[in-house]
Amino acid sequence: MVDEGPEPRVDNLVLPEVGAWTEDKHRLVSIYATLFSKGMKNKWGKRVYVELYAGAGYSRIRGTQRIILGSPLRALAAEQPFDKYIFCEAIPKNLEALKARVKLHFPAATVAYVEGDCDEKVAEILGQIPQGSRTNTVLTLCFADPYDIGLKFSTIKALSDRFVDFLVLLAVYSDANRAYKRYVMEDARKVDEFLGSPTWRERWRIAEANGVVFPKFLAEEFASSMEDLNYLSTPIHQMKKVRSDDKNLPLYYIALFSRHKLAHDFWDEALKYGTDQTGFTFE
């Protein structure tokens, strides 16, 4: 169903530590990217893949010596590769390692690198996406894999001016739920920027009174903001809740946002294969 990608090679470059569930997450994303790229090859003139938090190319499973491929390298290994890849990474050592590993495994790929915070570099990212035309259309798949809810909705909105589908990790359990008291303070702006709305507290008070938990509320609010950008509805049951391997605690949702139903069909297919062949825990 999906090319697992090249074997990582031992080098002296940075190796971020990650939880064991990260490999399953990357596999699911790579299955979707493979379906997306192959399915859209003859429908669009160019297909572009963007990662907003690209990482170092390799990472090590925490508590082990197991090295795994990051999602950028897995996307590069797609059966029908994208025409262009754009990788944004804020940590210079990570980006240096990613460049070296991409050059090692995929020297012929067309790849652009953007160093810095994606929220600050969104204009540069947009500048790397080819301008489409009626005779040479361009479709982009953007994977946003933040560590917390620090991704600003204004970045998503800016990118959505093009033909862009999004896979977004919503860290509403691992971050927002743990920092609940700080985030609901009236002068705290992080949730405002994440949702693109300063009025969410009013809706939260109503939702809380009706027994809705904070992570679910945030995920649904984010989806509502995406609908305001003319993306199709993504109800909570179509988002995939991922739990940790060790304590089985909820970590985040992975959600697809597209303006086309075909993309959601691909997502359903990716989930079928991902669930059958990995240890992902979905609800």
Account of the protein in words:
Helices cover 40% and strands 18% of the residues. The chain is of the alpha/beta class. A hairpin with a 6-residue loop joins strand 9 (240-243) and strand 10 (250-257). It has helices spanning 21-40, 71-76, 92-105, 122-128, 153-159, 172-177, 180-183, 190-195, 200-209, 214-228, 261-277, and strands at 17-18, 46-51, 58-61, 67-69, 84-89, 111-115, 138-144, 164-170, 240-243, 250-257. Residues 276-283 have low confidence and may be disordered. The chain has a single domain (17-277), classed as Vaccinia Virus protein VP39 (Rossmann fold, 3-Layer(aba) Sandwich). The strands form two sheets. The chain has a seven-stranded mixed beta sheet with strand order 6-5-2-7-8-10-9, sandwiched between helices. Strands 1-3-4 form a three-stranded mixed beta sheet. The chain contains eleven helices and ten strands. The protein is globular, with a radius of gyration of 18 Å. Helix 1 (21-40) runs antiparallel to helix 11.
**How would you sum up the global shape?**
globular
Characterize the largest beta sheet: strand count, sense, and whether it forms a barrel. Answer: 7 strands, mixed
Q: What level of helicity do the residues show? A: 25-40%
Number of strands: 10
What's the total helix number?
11
SSE sequence, one letter per element: EHEEEHEHEHEHEHHHHHEEH
**CATH class membership:** Alpha Beta
CATH architecture descriptor name: 3-Layer(aba) Sandwich
Largest sheet strand order:
6-5-2-7-8-10-9
**Which structural class best describes the helix and strand composition?**
alpha/beta
- Proportion of beta-strand residues: 15-25%
| Overall tally of domains | 1
Distance from first to last alpha carbon: 23 Å
